[in-house]
Amino acid sequence: MPQADKSGPKPSSGRSEFEGKSYPTNTPELLDEALRYAFDYRGDITLELENGDQIEGFVHNFDLERDVVELFVKESKRVSNNESLPASKIKAVHFSGDDKAFGKSWDDWMTKSERQRQAEADRLEKEAIDRGHL
Predict the structure, then answer these.
(1) Contact (CB, 8 A) for 123 and 132
(2) Across the chain, where does the E strand assignment appear?
(3) How far apart are alpha carbons 71 and 49 in whole angstroms?
(4) pLDDT tens across 111-128, in order?
(5) Alpha-carbon span 3 to 104, nearest angstrom
(6) Tens of pLDDT along 71-112?
């Protein structure tokens, strides 16, 4: 999804606007807003449930009409499990993990790609010179 399509607040500098923040979900509107932000977030979040349990993971889908949130629950650095839980049981959403894509813009990607293309062109030119073709 393009950066311009993200629904959350726009960061000013340094780190994502969401990192380290918590959103209560005590109304249907707040639950919808918090889950939209969590869905758009490119890092792990922690869901605090009504019973006091906390689940850390990455939200990849939610449907409030069906009362479901789907997330990859963090088991370890390399392992995660896909789980579903009732959205109505969420008391708060904590943005506990780093936003992995923060600061990575189209311009950064273009600059890196141009450097890679130039390095490849330089390598091919050197090979052609070494073979005596240039």
Answers:
(1) no
(2) 22-24, 45-49, 54-63, 68-74, 80-85, 90-94
(3) 14
(4) 888 999 999 999 999 999
(5) 9
(6) 998 776 666 688 999 999 999 999 987 766 666 666 677 788
The Cα–Cα gap between 104 and 125 comes to 31
Distance CA 96, CA 45 (A): 5
One-letter amino acid for residue 91 of the chain: K
Residue pointed to by tokens 């708060």: 92
Structure tokens at 54: 């906390």
Q: Which tokens go with 129?
A: 């010179």
Q: How many angstroms separate the CA atoms of 13 and 34, rounded?
A: 22
Cα gap 10→56, rounded to integer Å: 24
Q: What are the φ and ψ backbone dihedral angles of 54, each rounded to 5 degrees?
A: -125, 135
